Amino acid sequence: MRQIRSQLLGTGYFLPSKVMTNDDLSRIVDTSDEWISTRTGIKSRCIAADDEYTSALCVNAAKKAIANSEIAVEDIDFIIVATVTPDNTFPSTAAKVGKLLGIKNGAAAMDVNAACSGFVYATQVADNMIRLGQIKTALVIGAETLSKITDWTDRNTCVLFGDGAGAAVLAGYEAEGNNTDKGILATKIYSDVSHYDTLCSDSGVSINQRSGFIHMDGKEVFRMAIPALVQGVEETLSLANLTASDIDWYIPHQANLRIIDSVAKKLNLPMEKVIVTVDHHGNTSAASIPLALAESIENGKIKPGNIIAISSMGAGFTWGGIIIRV
Ligand code: UT7
């Protein structure tokens, strides 16, 4: 039966110009390129300048996504930014992005905080609003300046994270209503909030008026990430009436190459079908998926018509998946 679906019109990404290598880190804390590379797969990450805010990363990524979508900013009627590193406690970074882009058409603007799953959560919200006919065109962004909430004396965490932003423009169209359609074919989001303290900021505005630093029980996150990422793919594939063999590319949350390897094995996906950017992005939380998506479209890996499976997992714990035909 014919139905409205959300089509991916275009994507864009932005990375700060400062690149920090593992060797750079080994001059700050007691670590080594060997340890970071073998335990995580990370080689380098980008770090925002002191006066380079999350909103600036968003705007740079959004401008590219808007240009690639061949729409005007006035066509956007919803701006949603997934981030745990907003410019201000309030208003939302999405409102700042709208202001900086010069959007004056009354488009709704809000942030979503679902940590590393933020872009998947934001996409589900935008997709549902499009399919309900409440909006036509959404600007969905995942962006972080995690370097600003990183304790640069803690080697357990400071080697893992990076800064960046990825943006996607989604727009409604009337589709056939089957899995040969273009656009978002399924989404699903989850949480297990009993793990609230396993990965968190160690402060908060309501607790002590500070934003705090990233605190993580890495081993526990690692253990939980693998089944969560697998579930995000398997259940969305099933909702879309597809199987793993239909996937052209899998984009997992980019936190650790060992996690990605293990998830690919469980899904029976060869690594040739898995997008890996953690080596040069590090873990960019909510920006990780849209950065990997936009970069892989730009470099020609992902081609029109490809079926992409996405899954992400992070603090909360939150996790989720998306199946999209680009
Ligand atoms: O984005 C949300 C999702 N986040 C994740 O998915 C992160 C999941 N967790 C991980 O990726 C891994 O648990 C880590 C990369 C964080 C840590 O890897 P691990 O293999 O679990 O190492 P570990 O924490 O067990 O530490 C092993 C050793 C320890 O030394 P001892 O106690 O064995 O002597 C650590 O003190 O490595 C030491 N270590 C380091 N050594 C050099 C910890 N960090 C470092 C470091 N450089 N940066």
Characterization of the model:
By secondary structure, this protein is an alpha/beta fold. The chain folds into 2 domains: 3-175, Thiolase/Chalcone synthase (Peroxisomal Thiolase, Chain A, domain 1, 3-Layer(aba) Sandwich); 183-325, Thiolase/Chalcone synthase (Peroxisomal Thiolase, Chain A, domain 1). It has 11 helices and 13 strands. It has helices spanning 22-26, 33-40, 54-69, 93-101, 118-131, 155-158, 205-208, 218-239, 257-266, 278-281, 288-298, and strands at residues 3-14, 18-21, 44-47, 78-82, 108-112, 137-145, 163-175, 183-191, 199-201, 214-216, 249-252, 307-314, 318-325. The protein has a 5-stranded mixed β-sheet, sandwiched between helices. Strand 12 and strand 13 (318-325) form a beta hairpin. The longest helix is centred in the last third of the chain and has 22 residues, at 218-239. The protein binds oxa(dethia)-CoA (UT7).
How do the strands and helices of this protein lay out in sequence?
Elements: E1 3-14, E2 18-21, H1 22-26, H2 33-40, E3 44-47, H3 54-69, E4 78-82, H4 93-101, E5 108-112, H5 118-131, E6 137-145, H6 155-158, E7 163-175, E8 183-191, E9 199-201, H7 205-208, E10 214-216, H8 218-239, E11 249-252, H9 257-266, H10 278-281, H11 288-298, E12 307-314, E13 318-325
Parallel strand pairs: 4-5, 4-6, 11-12
Antiparallel strand pairs: 1-7, 2-3, 6-7, 8-13, 9-10, 12-13
The structure holds oxa(dethia)-CoA (UT7).
